[in-house]
Amino acid sequence: MPGAGRTIPFNEVQLHNTRDDCWVVIDGEVYDVTHFLADHPGGTASILRMAGKDATDVFTPIHPPGTLTLLPPTLHMGSIDLSTLPLPELSEKRKLDLARIDLARRALPPPEAAVNLGDIERLAQTVLTSTAWAYYSSAADDEISHRENLASFKRFFFRPRVLNKVSSISMSTTLFNGVQSTMPVYVSPAAMARLGHPDGEMEITRACAKEGVVQGVSANSSCSLEEIMDAKTTGQDLIYQLYMNRNRQRSREVIEKVDRMGFKGIMLTVDAPVSGKRERDIRAQGDDFQGPAEGTNEGKGVAQAISGYQDPDVNWADIAWIKSLTKLPLYIKGIQCVEDAEKAYEHGVAGIIISNHGGRQLDYAPASMTVLYELSQRRPDLMKQMDVYLDGGIRRGTDVLKALCLGAKGVGIGRPVLYGNGCWGEQGVRRVFQIMREEIATGMRLLGVTRLEDLRPEMIRYTDRDPTLVCPGEGQ
């Protein structure tokens, strides 16, 4: 490396603090990122705020190990003289945020105190940084689709059967071409778990191993694939989420890598050719993402900082190309209408994931449950010929059962896993799974079924209205 062996005092780094001359320190190494500014997916503003400074604390939570190896070696200027590096200065806003978190952590109950996933979400808001909470919880524009994901499940009511023996039930199943799972729930690939816990996705991997749950690994994980694979146990199976890169060679390398590493399938995410406008994320006002720099319109949140490499021209022709590179089963994630479900089947994929990206992309995109219902009405034959999964808005065991009644093979949960990880790490993620398992078991028994195969369309009915949640005499 050009800067190998050179030691640079911090006062020299401080001189390089402009758009035309920008140095930063990361993990004790000094980089000249002046010519990289225009290529940074998160825009120039987030880098310029750290020009001439130590950016380690900002960089590390949202970039997996090895990210810096992608930079040209010529950008490495040398190692910082640690004796000259001052203690980090915290803004008043950051100090208040840390004080709030410290108090909340001290008051945090054990995972067992959480009765449902809503409890975990409310606790997570108290212990996460403002930046982490905004990134995890935010959705597109007015967040209509995000709320609709949750509301859509409330339009389906059960038709329980009684006087069946239900003392012994089984919710074990196989997902993603034969991967064993203790229940019909998997972890949807969700990025930046290190914003909530220092071990990030590794904690999720460990929890999945102990609970027998399949993990979808995000392409934008804050842990490297090597770290995640090292954290898994023998026989544990993982699915990889793929975004198509503008540089097809990069995508080829990733596909071949996950194949070699032993992943059991690939989810090609197709509902994010560009990043949605997640306003809460943009407005987070963390020290690392503070809105536009003066005189610019470059303010971006975490979502934009980790995006930008995706190809907006990814199309159906890419399916055959991916299949030519690997024998791994391919699933299309982000199907939002029956017509595209039909096209996916015609292109020979192993299955589809009905999803609107948790409401984080196109606002007013239909709820996943709504699309699943339409597919079950119009093309029930397709659901017998390829696997259909769903994510978005799953918060109850009854939500899972409703999706399975309509023919879904399994459902994915994303935000609740991040919230559990943010509260208690591995134990918090395990608590999420335990709650879901308990609720699914109770729901099956009260529906009068003992196997997942017993769940059928005639066991639920659709009501074309939002059910009232106000008891008589209240809220009037």
TrEMBL record:
GO terms for cellular component: mitochondrial intermembrane space. Keywords: Flavoprotein, FMN, Heme, Iron, Metal-binding, Mitochondrion, Oxidoreductase. It catalyses: (S)-lactate + 2 Fe(III)-[cytochrome c] = 2 Fe(II)-[cytochrome c] + pyruvate + 2 H(+). Residues 109-465 form the FMN hydroxy acid dehydrogenase domain. The keyword Flavoprotein applies. Homotetramer. Belongs to the cytochrome b5 family. One of its GO terms (molecular function) is metal ion binding. It comes from Calocera viscosa (strain TUFC12733). This is L-lactate dehydrogenase (cytochrome). SMART domains: Cyt-b5 (SM01117). It comes from the Eukaryota. Gene3D superfamilies: Aldolase class I, Cytochrome b5-like heme/steroid binding domain. Residues 5-81 form the Cytochrome b5 heme-binding domain. Its EC number is 1.1.2.3.
